[in-house]
Design goal:
Oligomer: single chain
Distance between the termini: 132 Å
Number of helices: 2
Helix content: 40-55%
Radius of gyration: 44 Å
Number of strands: 8
Order of helices and strands: EEHHEEEEEE
Number of domains: 2
Largest sheet: 3 strands, antiparallel
Structural class: alpha+beta
Shape: elongated
Strand order of the largest sheet: 3-6-7
Amino acid sequence: MNDTDTDDQGSNRPSSPDTRQDKEPTVEIPSHEQELVRLRDERDQLELQLQRQLADAANVRRRQRQEMDDQKRRVLEGLTQELLPALDTFGMALSAFDSGGTDPKALIEGVRMTRVLLTSALERHGLQEIRAEGQTFDPLRHEAVAAEPAAGVHEGQILRVLQTGYMIGDKVVRHSRVVVAGPAPKS
C-alpha cells in the first residue's frame, strides 16, 4: 500500500494517520455502567468472603467452647470417681453406727480414714493446704479474724488456725482464717 488514498471521487490524497490500516490499537475505556457492574461484582465477592470468614470464626469459637466444656466434664468425672470411695466410707460408717453395733472409737477412726481419702484425692488434683500456725501473717494467704496479745510471740505471728486454707498451684482457693498475735500486753 502507498501513502496516498483514493477518496470517493477517485482523487488521490496523502493518507492521514487516522485512515491507515496499520494504525495503533486503542484502549477502550469502560463506560461508567460497566465499571459500576464490575465494582458491584467485586463487592459481592468480598461480602461473600467476609461472611465465610465470620462463619469460620464462629465455628472455631463454638468448637473451642465445646472442647473446654468436654475437658471440664472429664476433669469433674475423674475427681468424682476419686471422691466416691470417701463418700462410700462415710456411708458405711454412718450405717454401722446407726445399726448400734459399732464402737464410737471405730466410728472416729473411720472418719479419720475418710479424711485421708478425701485429702489424698484432692492433693492428686493439685490442692495444697496453706500452712499457717506459727507463721508470719500474710494477707495474700491468710484472713485475720481476731488479734490477741501474746507474751513471747512477735506481733503479726499466727497463734491459731480457725479454718484451714487451700491453694491450687499459686492460686488461693480459700484463705486460712486465723488468730494473729497483737501488741504485747503493757505491764
